[in-house]
Amino acid sequence: MGKLVLEQTRNIKPIIRVGLEKVLPIYVKFLETKTVTKPIVIDEKTGIILEGHEIFQALQLLSAKKVPVFKGSLSEVRIDPPHLKEIIVKTGFKGFKLPTGNLKITLREKIPKINVTLKELGVWEKKDKEVLRVYNSMLELLYKGWPTPLVKLISLSSENRSVWAKLEGYNPFSNSVKDRIGWYMIMEALEEGELKDILYEATSTNTGIALASIANILGRKAKLFIPQTIQKVSDIFLKVLGAEVVRTPVSLTVEAIGEVDSEAKNIGATHLNQFENDANFKVHLKYTAREIDEQLRSVGLTPTHIIGGLGTSGHMSAISLYFKSRYGDDVKIIGVQPAPDEIIPGIRRIESGMKWYHWVKFDEIIDVKREEAVEKSIEIARKEGLLIGLSSGAVVHAFTKIAEEKGVYVLVFPDTGYKYAEQFEEYLTKIKATRTQT
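Structure (tokenized):
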């Protein structure tokens, strides 16, 4: 049978499906003794397990990178019933597992005892704490948790077109891209000695949640001004975080800036002002844009199109500056805004005023109706299993308007869909009523 070998787990091919009740006692013994005393026997040519399925599955549960094996030959073992020999080979390569008891494999040689530690097999291998996602504070969880994921959307991709979503919903506070600017604005104000005890901000929800969360960590308070058009659940989230919430008689967040700035000055509070604060632009230039570039390059790609919504214009303007500077017009930058007289939370029309938009180049701006945004959010949920927000749905709709058969597309998804139950309910109720009428 040769000598003992520590074989990579991925090279082993089990052929029998073993019940968990038989595996767990072995798993427990390994944990208690930290040692494996019996090897697995495999066929040298195929890697098929001839003896030791329970051991292999226990080591799999321990995430062992290697397993102790002796290599033999399928031709030298007795198989009962004999006709299963051909099936065994096919089973090993196709990945199907035969139920326990369907066959019996008898080895000609006695299996010797061994003494291999779990450490030798790669169990409990020492890893860097960042790899294991261990953080010393919630602020570390934010910025050391970057990059946020970039994931391929199979439902929108094809043979010659790959479509990738940048999932900013993985940020921990507001579950949105706004965690980045909230953190950077506050850190800059803190460094410059301008962070007062109370923070004022006009917000449509996400920036407010980010600021309230970080303010709590730093022992500050937040007073937030929200347009009357924003979903009611936003008040609940913000009040849970201890923020004072003021509903303002405006349709767009930016329309409340004057009131917020005046009141903040009167009481000596800090008005961070996401619409004018260059920290908004800098954090995306330093982190978000570079993340997208490095993530794509890790899989051998460069983008042909990047599509994202325009709110303050911070993240898409920074992305435009970075990619246009690095790749020129080989990368098309597409901005997304609500169609005239439409309201989509998180994005707005360019004419409402955007500081950084005018600093950079956009190749195209696409108008999207609210209903189109909702429809695409639901479509992604049902095809990809990913619940995205309305501005993300608007980005998907914009993609469908400009998509070509070839290319590498990046869709920036600013947040998740969990804050927009009211809008989803309204749409689904409308659809149900329409179907009932017809």
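The domain at 5-121 is CATH 3.90.1530.10 (Conserved hypothetical protein from pyrococcus furiosus pfu- 392566-001, ParB domain). The chain has three domains: 5-121, 138-173+279-437, 178-271.
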